[in-house]
Amino acid sequence: MRLAAVEKALTAFVHTTDGITLALKGPWGRGKTFYWDRFMRAQAAASPTQGYAYVSLFGLTSVAEMKRAVAVNARALGTLADEHARTYLEEALASKWWSRPTPAISPFKTLQGGSAAGSPIVEDLLQREVSDLIVCIDDLERRGNGLRLADVLGYCSHLKERRGCRVVVILNEEAFTAEEAEAYRGLSEKVFDHQVLFDPSPRECTAIAIPETDERYAPLRESCERLRITNIRILQRAKRLVADFAPFMKRHDAALARRFAHSAALYTLCFYSREAAQPPYAFVKGYRDAGVARLGGTHEATPEEERWEAFLTTYGFRGGDPLDREIVKYIESGVVDGTALRFLLDETERELESEKRFRRFETAWEKLFESFDEQDADRLADVEVTLQAAGELVDISFVNAFATLCRGVGQTEVATRVIDGWIAAVQAKRTIALDLTVRKDRDEIRDPELLAALTAARESVRDPRGLEEVLTALESADGWGEPDVEVLLSASAEQYERLFRATRGERLGRWVGLCMRFASVEGPEAEVGRRAQAALRSIASDGPLNAWRVRRYLRS
Hints:
mainly alpha; 26 helices; elongated
C-alpha cells in the first residue's frame, strides 16, 4: 500500500470517535515508526488535547509492565513537540491535591521511587487514567521473553472495548517465528478492525527520510531513488554523511555535489544493508570498472560477481577514486579528514570539468552524423570549438579524422588550427599521446600535417635519459611518471633484450621485474610490459637453461 492510501487509513483511524484497533505492518527498516510519529505530530495541531500514549515493547517481559508503560506515557497530543512537557502522571504528581493526606493516594506517591510500583492500589489508579486515548504499541516482534503475543493482543482488545481507546500496533510479520506467525494469524482477525500494509515505494521512502525542503540533499535523493533504497535508517545515514561533508562542499559546483552523492548513496547502502539485492560492501570497495584487471586478469568472474558488476554498471559506478576513499574512511570511522578532503574536492572538480569539456566535444561530433546537409558549416564550427576546448582529452584519431574532413571540404586552415591547438595542449598536459608507436591503429593516422607536427613535438620534449637511467631511478621510486614511461616506450623489444643480456647480479631481477609490472596496467604503458615479454621469450629460445630462468618472470 502506497503512502497516500496509508495516510487515508490512519486519518480515518485517529478521527473515529469509537474504540478501534489497527495493525500497521511492514518489512524491517521501511520507517513505520518514523512515519507514524511524523503523522501524529501533524495531527497534534488539529487535536492538541487528545490523549496519546506511545509504548515500545522492546525488552518488556510482562503484561503488567506493558500496562504500566501505557499509563505512565499518556500525555496530551499537543505536547509531542515539547520534550520537556509533562505526561498526565507528572501533571498529577505536581497538582495541589497531591499533597493532601489521603490514605488511598499515599502508596501512589511512592511510584516515582519505585517502591509502590507493584501495589494493586497503584496499578488500579494508573489503569483508571487509561481511557479515550490513542495508544501506539510498537515493536510487537521485539517484545521480551515472558510477554506472550496473545496477552499483548488481549490487552489491545481490552483497551478498545473497555476503555474506548483507539489502538494501533506496529509490527513486522517477517520477524515472527513460525509459531508466532501461526498464533498471529489466528488472533489478528479477531483483534484488529483494520490491517494496513506499510510498504512505500523507493521515492516515498526517500521523501520520508530526506524531505524535499532542503536543496542540499537533492542529488542524494536522486541517487537513493536510482538505487531503490527503501530502508529509512540507511537513507538517514546517507543524509548524515552528506551533512557532515557539506561544510567542505560549499564553494564547489553542483556537478561535484552530484558526483559525491552518487558514491555516498552506494557505499552507505552496501555497508549497512542486510539484503542481497546489491553487491557486498567489500566488493564495491575494491571494484574496478567491469572487472578490469581483476586479480591481474587471471580470475574468471563467478555468476554472482557478474550480477554485482551488472548492478554497478547499471548504476553508473566505474570504481572508487581518491574522493571515494574519503567516503569509505568516513563510513568506517565516522570521521571526516578535512585536510585531505579539501585537496581531493579541488582535484575532483577539475576532473569533472574535464569530463564536461570532452562531453561537449563528443556531442558536437555526434551531431555531424545527424544530417545529410552538405552545407552544414555550423556543425563543423561546433566541432572545431569544442575540440579546441577539450584539447588533450581528445584522442588523436578524432583529430586525424576531423583534419582529413576539413581538407576534404576545402577548409585547410581549420585543419591547421585544430592540429596546432591539439599539439600545444598535449605538449602541456599529456605528452605520451604524441607517441604513435604504442597504438595498434598507428597506420590509420595519415594526415600529413598531423604526422609532421607529431614528429616536431616529440623532438621538442624528448627526455635525454636512456633506458638504464630510467630503470635505475625507478628502483627507488614509489611509482612512475609520464616522462619515465616515454623513455621506456622509446626502446624496442630488441633494446630490452640487449639490456637484459648485458645486466648482471641482483639488478637484473629488479629491472626485469620493473618492466614486467607494466604488463598488468591499463593504457599505453602496458606496451612496456609487452616489449619486455617479447625480449624474455627471445632469450628463452637460447636453450633449456634460459627457458627455465625466463619462466620465473613470465609466470609471475
